[in-house]
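The records we work with from here on pair a chain with its fold. Taken together, the tokens spell out the fold as the letters spell out the chain. The record below shows the convention in full.
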Amino acid sequence: MASTRIIVLFNLKPGRVAADYEGWARSSDLPTVNALGSMERFELFKTTGLLGSDVAPPYQYIEVLDIADMGLFGADVGSDAMKKIAAEFQDWADPIFIATERIEA
């Protein structure tokens, strides 16, 4: 079964401090999500620019979630630990979640 990749684009809410968010992500979000049985890998990226441009990127952060089993992921997301993480994340940002599938050559 092919894995699903979810890409999350977001900016921090007004008044939120990047260093505080990144500390929370390192201590809570990344380890909790990476521990899910459905997860292959969960990574967080801070954008640094638009290639070949001086224009600021439209989003400050990008998350990439590689999910091995979407059925299990649905169950994992419903757990108390993930409900807590999701609620905390919503306090930091208003994310856009994009589900993708790979197009093979």
